[in-house]
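Amino Acid Chain and Its Fold in Token Form
===========================================
What this section holds: a protein sequence and its matching fold, both as plain text.
Structure line: whole-number tokens from a learned vocabulary of local backbone shapes, matched to residues.
Purpose: to set a sequence beside its fold so the mapping can be learned.
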Amino acid sequence: MTTVLLYTAGVVFFVGAILVSIGLHELGHMIPAKRFGGKVTQYFIGFGPTVWSKQVGETEYGVKAIPLGGYVKIVGMLPPGAEELAGPVEHDAQGNEVHKVRKSNTGLFTQLVSDARSAEYETITAADEDRLFYKMPPWKKIVVMAGGPSVNILIAFLLFWTVFSTYGDMSAASAEPAPGRPVVAEVSRCVIPYSEQRTDCREGDPDAPAFEAGLLPGDTITDFNGTAVTSWDQLRGLIRDNASGAAVIGFERDGQREVGRTSTTVELRPDDLTGEDETLTEVGFLGVSPEAELVVPTGGPLYTIERMGSLTVDTVQAIGTLPVKVFEVGQAIVGVEERQADSPVSIVGGGRIAGETASTTEVPGGDRAFSLLALVAGFNLFIGVFNFVPLLPLDGGHIAGAAWESVRRRLAWLRRRPDPGYVDVARMLPVAYGFGLVLMVMGVVLIIGDVVAPISLAG
């Protein structure tokens, strides 16, 4: 019963945290839009049927039934096409002038653009003319559209900072030999050439020197060829420098001093002890591994920025391979292959991971709490970076349009040519619809995959 409650609590926490993140993302758009004089008529979390809403001033705030995103409605996102402007001025029921857009266009894509413009301007009056989004200076448009994903990245930073500065960065954790005299954790039964990268002993493999010397796991090595040993790094250097020479090894076992005699063997091993350089060098080899402890690095804001830089690069690479990864999830759904542990997940999969994390009672509660924070931080980083992709309907598409508008206006000014006017992002709507459809299909595939072929922490 406790496990079920913890699992449910983990799912609820994760979903709630993502919904809060979505709400803050939309505030990142709405607040600067209003500050710059724009008109925001709707602020909603979720999609589909409205569950609750309230009108406050000129903005309707609400929640919709499907918690897979959110939106704010900023008036005048699309500029009217010059060739589509209506002739006579029309008026609404209150007598206000209404800006109309013709719908008479030929061609499927042209009609899509025309219909979108028409819907955009159905409720716009003359009083709104100076508050239309497309009329804002390019830098203001960029601030408004970058505000949302920037909030997600800020959330990720604050959460990662909290985790890294207290619990530590588990993704960068490493096993390092315990301080003090080396305690043997493992003794090799035989000598296996480094280049073969195997762990099983085969016929013809010579006995490892440590095995010949009688060393056992749990022994504490105290000296090597008469030199007192105080650390693993020191012992490792003595062994490597000994080449194929005789080795007298002093060690303690159950409080008793013992001595083992053997000869180290010469092996080709990496010369760089950090593992970054794989150049092989002939060195002495004994065949023991020391007891190690997990070292988890910690750090403040600068460390967090550095780590987020690396994580952002990984995220960009993941976005680049997203279609392939989603296709692999589709194969896992129909049973063609196993679901990969590094495959992308939807909010459903994230909820399952959060539930498993919260209900793993073998792990201390503090560790589970910090793992949940890191999970939410990772989702926010992905949402933020993904929304900067310069394609509509993502925020990055509008940012790219505003940036191009600024560039071409500056170029026109430098060349003393007429102002080219606003960039018509509506012309990219067919691409936006196509890309939006692709995103929807990928989302559905991931959700189904997270249900029928989920990723499990238990592997």
About this structure: The domain at 175-295 is CATH 2.30.42.10 (Pdz3 Domain). Confidence is low (pLDDT under 50) at residues 83-89, 101-106. The chain has eleven helices and 14 strands.
